[in-house]
């Protein structure tokens, strides 16, 4: 479910209600930030103080309560993928990958729980570059216990797990009609 461009009516929950932090995709000197939320990976606009400082892509901002590891910004609302600046487009994959790396439970949850989608297709095959034989190999390596860490997963399967999942999630941000949609099934569920 994509956040609506229009404000929700009173009493109707917004997908952004549960979000507290976002990462910078593009920062402009006016204080306007295009970013992505950490929990639901929603594309958003934020406003930070225009104090002359620049904020590199991936900088963490809080828009609820100030924290030690994040700066403060005001949430302006959702934005669409097609409205992102070219810099935000260029940084999206790396920022999503860093969110997955910093919050490994989401990434590991996918790899440890993924199953068959049909008789001929496994969920691993949704990831760019993973074909049928690689998916079968990954299922065999996973066994019943799964992986405890992303480095263990990467080493045993000879992949970059966070990178592959970030690729798929970025494709879904660009085209929210992709099915199955891992953003809805895995991240926003």
Beta-strand fraction estimate = 5-15%
pLDDT averaged over residues: 90
**Total of helices:** 6
Basic shape: elongated
Integer-rounded radius of gyration: 18 Å
Low-confidence stretches: 1-7
Question: Order of helices and strands, N to C?
Answer: EEEEEEHHHHHH
Notable features of this structure?
189 residues; alpha+beta; 6 strands; elongated; disordered N terminus
Question: How would you explain this protein's 3D organization?
Answer:
With 189 residues, the protein is α+β, with helices and mostly antiparallel strands. It has six helices and six strands, in the order E-E-E-E-E-E-H-H-H-H-H-H. Helices cover 35% and strands 15% of the residues. A six-stranded mixed beta sheet has the order 5-4-1-2-3-6. Helix 1 (86-102) packs across helix 2 and helix 1 (86-102) crosses helix 5. The longest helix has 17 residues, at 86-102. The radius of gyration is 18 Å and the shape is elongated. The N and C termini lie close together (10 Å).
């Amino acid at each position: 479910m994509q956040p609506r461009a229009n404000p929700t009516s009173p009493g109707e929950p917004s997908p952004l209600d549960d979000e507290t932090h976002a990462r910078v995709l593009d920062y402009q000197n006016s204080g306007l930030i295009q970013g992505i939320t950490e929990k639901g990976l929603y594309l958003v606009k934020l406003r930070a103080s225009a104090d002359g400082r620049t904020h590199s892509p991936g900088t963490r901002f809080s828009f609820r309560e100030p924290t030690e590891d994040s700066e403060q910004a005001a949430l302006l609302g959702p934005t669409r993928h097609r409205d992102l600046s070219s810099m935000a487009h260029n940084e999206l994959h790396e920022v999503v990958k860093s969110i997955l790396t910093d919050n490994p439970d989401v990434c590991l949850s996918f790899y440890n729980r993924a199953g068959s989608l049909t008789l001929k297709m496994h969920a691993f095959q949704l990831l760019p570059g993973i074909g049928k034989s690689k998916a079968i190999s990954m299922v065999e390596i996973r066994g019943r216990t799964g992986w405890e860490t992303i480095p263990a997963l990467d080493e045993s399967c000879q992949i970059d797990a966070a990178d592959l999942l970030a690729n798929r999630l970025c494709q879904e941000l660009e085209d929210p009609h992709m099915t199955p949609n891992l953003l809805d099934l895995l991240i926003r569920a």
